[in-house]
Design goal:
This protein is mainly β. The strands form two sheets. Strands 2, 4, 5, 6, 9, 10 and 11 form a seven-stranded mixed sheet that branches. Strands 1-3-8-7 form a four-stranded antiparallel sheet, with no helix packed on it. A hairpin with a 4-residue loop joins strand 7 and strand 8. The chain is elongated. About 30% of the residues are buried.
Length: about 120
């Protein structure tokens, strides 16, 4: 099973971006999916998470009200809508997931997608 992110790019402050994270493989299920980010010289931090079914979400205080996490369970794809972007949102964004394969659980990461907020 692998995760592939897409949708990063360069945007001006106040702008918006949409990120996607698609899971591919066979005979797997996913419960929790997350978005993390890591800025240069800083630790990776949790941005948002969403639990299977999409009914439960959590956000870092720094992004509440600006970012929205969602998922399409049928397509094993998670999304992150980033609005009102700030300079400090610049980072590499990674998705991760708890994946169950043949009754075993694995935590996997995508390769990351760069978000740069700059005027």
């Amino acid at each position: 099973v692998q995760l592939v992110e897409s949708g990063g790019g360069l945007v001006q402050p106040g702008g918006s971006l949409s990120l996607s994270c698609a899971a591919s493989g066979s005979n797997f299920s996913i419960n929790v999916m997350t978005w993390h980010r890591q800025a240069p010289g800083k630790q990776r931090e949790l941005v948002a998470l969403i639990i299977s079914g999409g009914g439960t979400t959590r956000y870092a205080d720094s992004v509440k009200g600006r970012f929205t996490i969602s998922r399409d369970n049928a397509k094993n794809t998670m999304f992150l809508q980033l609005n009102s972007l700030k300079l400090e949102d610049t980072a590499m964004y990674y998705c991760s997931a708890n994946v169950v394969v043949d009754t075993k659980m694995y935590h996997i990461w995508g390769q990351g997608t760069q978000v740069t907020v700059s005027s």
